[in-house]
Amino acid sequence: MNNMIEQMLNARDPHSIDDKKNSIKEIVQEIILCGLSRAGFFHKAAFYGGTALRIFHGLDRFSEDLDFSLITPDTDFSLDDYLPVLEKELLTYGFNFKAENKVKSQSSDILSAFVKGNTREHILLCYADERLAGSVIGSELIKIKFEVDTTPPMFATYEKQFRLVPVPYEINLYDMPSLFAGKIHAVICRSWKNRVKGRDLYDYIYYLSKDTPVNLKHLNARLIDSGYEGAYEDMPLEEIKEILYRRFENIDYSQARSDVLPFIREPSSLDIWSQDFFKATTTKLTSI
Description:
The chain folds into 2 domains: 3-174, JHP933, nucleotidyltransferase-like core domain (Nuclear Transport Factor 2, Chain: A), CATH 3.10.450; 176-282, no CATH class. Helices cover 44% and strands 15% of the residues. The protein is built from 12 helices and 7 strands. It is globular, with a radius of gyration of 19 Å. 36% of the residues are buried. The model has no long low-confidence stretch (mean pLDDT 95).
């Protein structure tokens, strides 16, 4: 196994089989980011979402997907030139993954792709544990989904960051207030249907714990872009808070806890979750 990959695995100290699978996914995510950087992707796009928060700002939960946004809208943008680069980059470190566009049944401004590799094969590669690999169904795949918004809402602001592993590279990503705007938009607008996405709530509290102000102009642009009823360009923060209060009154917190539990290591941090807790913490929300 590649020495750098071994170093990255040791830094994660996984215990359960799920921890080990997630550790492989996290390393694959970082190799993908490195490959995209070396291919010039971040001259056109920026990284955002939960995985960006984990890798660059220390979010203490596993995040599955990679989310990107073009800096300048471009409906002709394609991922085709980048997918072979990702396969080659991963193979450099011994990872046998296939990168494929996701074909959608209807037109969308969001481009999607998957990077897929056999779970058993990569358990053996990373942990050399035949017993552990044998407990995995032979057809099971490690999948990393990534999406690119080709017509993003306006007023996001960005920062450049550097990573040293697997090799030094530079990345362009949303700054914390703009990341927070995306998360608040998800809390307000995401269609949870019959299963509350507790990961949104977990991340929301993480931003507040870091005293992160929200990029209000970008949040309002996102609300307008998604057709949220009553949204307008100069909606003040106090009105956003009222929307959040109403949202928190209609959440099944037991379901929310169940959703996020597989992704965190400190389940007791969720014990306090309730309507009153989220409303009280939201009073501390500030904006820029």
